[in-house]
Amino acid sequence: MNTAVMNEFEQKSRAKKMLLWFSMVSLGMSFAGLTSAYVVSKERADWLENLQIPSAFFVSLILILVSSLTMEWAKRSIKQGANQIGMWALLTTWLLGVGFVATQYFGFSQIYNDFGFAFTGPTSSIAYTFIFLIAVVHLAHIFGALIALTVVIYNHFKQRYTPTNTLGLELAILFWHFVDVLWIYLFLFFYFVR
């Protein structure tokens, strides 16, 4: 590759990464707003005093942490030219992401069936409504990350990544880590701010 083409590629790569960073910062601000509304709502007279966190949310925390490790394993393997190992790591990450979605569903079921609170209606609680809402908005971003990961798996299968050309993979990893860190923040927030 000549210098001019390489510089153009680097500029496009930097621009795409910067655009993703701006998007993630704005998404982070949205979640900061939602959690701020949660804190303000704690002053309401009908706020639950003994708010419980579903045990499934603890499992989802473990799954999301492990998925970040498998994403890094995939990146390292692909950059070293170990494409088959990279594919296994990507598929493992995808399965962990699906497991995260399933545990979130089990957490919602636990809130409804075991704790007795619905999202809305006569059996709802503003505290659990916030948890439902914030977790569902986070799940929407997890679905986006799973779609991005599916595209990366397809591109890797088609051998579009090389040790020196991993931009799509790097963007997907960056977003994956963002939704991971976001869930860690939300989980700790719900755990400590009850």
Number of contiguous helices: 5
Terminal-residue CA separation: 56 Å
User: How many domain modules?
Assistant: 1
In terms of structural class, how would the helical and strand content be classed?
mainly alpha
Assigned CATH superfamily? Cytochrome c oxidase, subunit III, four-helix bundle
Largest sheet: none
What is the averaged pLDDT score? 93
Percent range for β-strand residues: under 5%
The proportion of residues forming helix, as a percent range, comes to over 70%
Q: CATH topology, anyone?
A: Four Helix Bundle (Hemerythrin (Met), subunit A)
Description of the structure:
- The longest helix is centred in the first third of the chain and has 39 residues, at 3-41.
- The protein is elongated, with a radius of gyration of 20 Å.
- The chain is built from five helices and no strands.
- It is 79% helix and 0% strand.
- The protein starts with a helix and ends with a helix.
- The protein has one domain (55-192): Up-down Bundle (Four Helix Bundle (Hemerythrin (Met), subunit A)).
- Helix 1 (3-41) packs antiparallel against helix 4.
- The chain is mainly α.
- The protein has helices at 3-41, 55-79, 83-114, 126-157, 167-192.
